[in-house]
Specification:
- This protein has about 325 residues and is mainly alpha-helical.
- It folds into two domains: about 160 residues, no CATH class; about 90 residues.
- Helix 1 packs antiparallel against helix 5 and helix 5 packs antiparallel against helix 6.
- The radius of gyration is 42 Å and the shape is elongated.
- The protein starts with 16 loop residues before the first helix and ends in a 10-residue tail after the last helix.
Length: about 325
């Protein structure tokens, strides 16, 4: 599936005029150097890594090669290992050497994994070698295994025939370079990629533009998602705060209602024809408790202290203590 592209149709709108001019000038000057000059340092390191990997990982260049995006790469496998044959690797190095030096001359850089940093963006590409499919020819070892099977078949009732692949895939030496996910450049009968380095460089810079646009699109989407999340969190907090305030209001109203009931009762007791001394003391005590319960008064009780009217009754009601207060 073709990946969605973002931004204006003018693929050079990403670049400033001076930068565009420098890139275009470089495309006209870009050539593969075959004078035996020293390869780019990243390629020299890659060549050593490639040789070291080969010692512990013998390769079958006629085996089918996975081109898919989901090919599982063995940890430590150097770039290009599964993409080109050793026969064409020197040619690949010369092509990449020219491109790497051009990118650096334009202010970019090269990563150890052969990817490029162009205009501040990491640009990936593929360079692969074509293969032709032919019927598999048994190797000497496979021929020996087959002959052993033929002998066992005459001696044993059960002998399992060895299985070998049906086809060989012969490297053609023809290269394909893809710097953009929906286009590629390849060797032709009359010319190789060496004559199309300018086009490859332009594709690398166009891809850098696309990488930036996609990154900016992702970042904008991420910012939008984070802002929506922040707003949802604020809404949740406001909701919970409003519930807390409502519960506090109900608790305060309940305290006020209790204080009013107590005062009504005190008024009824005080209305008696004669109050005993004990009853008169009770009226004073009960009035103090009503003031303690009343959030509009907020009196401090000499025993219970201040009452937090916003709490629920369970959270603010005095409780008997079982401890020794001595």
């Amino acid at each position: 599936m073709m990946k969605k592209r973002y931004g204006p149709s003018d693929e050079w709108a990403f670049f400033e005029e001076t930068e565009r001019a420098r890139v275009m000038e470089m495309t006209r000057e870009l050539r593969v150097k075959t004078d035996g000059h020293k390869l780019h340092p990243v390629l020299l390191k890659h060549r050593s890594a490639f040789a070291a990997w080969k010692k512990t990982h013998p390769r079958d260049e006629f085996a089918p090669r996975s081109r898919g995006s989901y090919r599982r790469v063995t940890e430590g496998e150097p770039p290009l290992w599964g993409d080109v044959s050793e026969a064409v690797l020197p040619r690949v190095y010369l092509i990449l050497d020219a491109l790497f030096r051009a990118v650096e001359a334009l202010g970019g850089s090269v990563h150890p994994d052969l990817t490029l940093q162009i205009c501040g963006e990491r640009v990936r590409y593929t360079i692969t070698e074509g293969k032709t499919q032919t019927l598999h020819a048994l190797t000497k070892e496979e021929q020996r295994i087959w002959e052993e099977y033929e002998k066992k078949k005459t001696l044993y009732r059960y002998a399992y025939a060895p299985r070998f692949r049906t086809y060989d895939y012969i490297p053609t030496g023809r290269l394909t370079f893809s710097a953009r996910r929906d286009s590629y450049l390849r060797d032709s009968d009359s010319s190789g990629l060496e004559s199309r380095l300018g086009e490859i460089l332009l594709d690398l810079y166009r891809e850098a533009k696309q990488v930036r646009l996609e990154r900016e699109h992702r970042e904008a989407a991420q910012r939008k998602a984070e802002e929506e999340k922040r707003q949802r969190e604020q809404q949740r907090q406001r909701w919970n705060e409003e519930i807390d305030k409502l519960q506090a209001l109900e608790n305060q109203a309940a305290d006020y209602a209790r204080a009013c009931r107590i005062r009504a009762y005190i008024a009824a007791v005080r209305a008696k024809p004669r109050l005993t001394e004990e009853e008169a003391e009770w009226v004073l005590w009960a009035g103090g408790k009503a003031d303690w319960l009343d959030p509009t008064v907020g009196a401090e009780d000499p025993i219970f202290g201040l009452r937090d009217h916003s709490k629920s009754e369970e959270g603010k009601a005095p409780k008997k203590s079982s401890r020794n207060w001595g």
